[in-house]
Amino acid sequence: MITMRRADTLGNAHSDTLILRCHFAFSDYQDPAHTHDGRLRVLNLGTLKPAQVYHLGPEANVDILTWLPAGDIVSNADGFEQEKVGQGGLHLLSTGTGCKRLEWSAGPEGATFIQFWFMADVEGVPPAQEVRASFPQLEDGGFRILASGFPEDDPEEEGQITDGAPVTLTARARLLHAIIPAAEGAAYSTTLGRDLYLLVVSGIVTIDGYVLHCGDAAAITDQQDIVVIAQEKAELLLVDVAAR
């Protein structure tokens, strides 16, 4: 089953200094019809002005993934070194036993970000941080795994990471990315008991006869296989999470 979430139906949440566009209830945006999608608790879109800072905390037992469509940010969390993330980069903060302060500040050109929160499946672990500056695109335009809680998705766990290997989640989840040329498609298969959530970052796509424009999303349940066709060049993010 596919349930559409159009861009113009998203909620607005006032969080710290920002007004966020929210797919699920967050801060002062409360919507009983949209509280989460499986173990995906938060999907927020935000824009930071030059040098503007976004604060959160305290948080525990969630994996917070921040992906940048444009601009650059510097992350700053208690107990961790500052990390700079640019366009197309990904920042992970697994809050584990607890982080008192989380902070992202924009560079001189500002930044837009998309933030995902996954409910952890492994609790009681120390907080952890990972950053990827970029991810090489697949030649066939298919889905590439950006973050995963499945060890088999990252066979090279030792040594310095130079190939854009996925960041490691404490949630049994995946975040995937695709750039699909016009008139081409990308397929993905999951297993029983999983939910998929597809977000169109840019372009226009179709899935099972539904048309999604930039900013639209589709919640996919009780369906293991999907094929997304680009009507024009499209950039997508796809979440694969446990349904419960």
From TrEMBL:
Q: Which InterPro entries match?
A: Pirin, Quercetinase_C, RmlC-like_jellyroll, RmlC_Cupin_sf
**The UniProt record lists the keyword Oxidoreductase:** yes
Q: Which residues form the Quercetin 2,3-dioxygenase C-terminal cupin domain?
A: 165-241
Query: What's the domain of life for this entry?
Result: Bacteria
Keyword entries, A-Z: Dioxygenase, Oxidoreductase
SUPFAM superfamilies in the record: RmlC-like cupins
Quick check: keyword Oxidoreductase in the entry? yes
What GO MF annotations does this protein's record show?
A: dioxygenase activity
Q: What is the name of the protein in this document?
A: Putative quercetin 2,3-dioxygenase
What is the protein's species of origin? Acetobacter pasteurianus
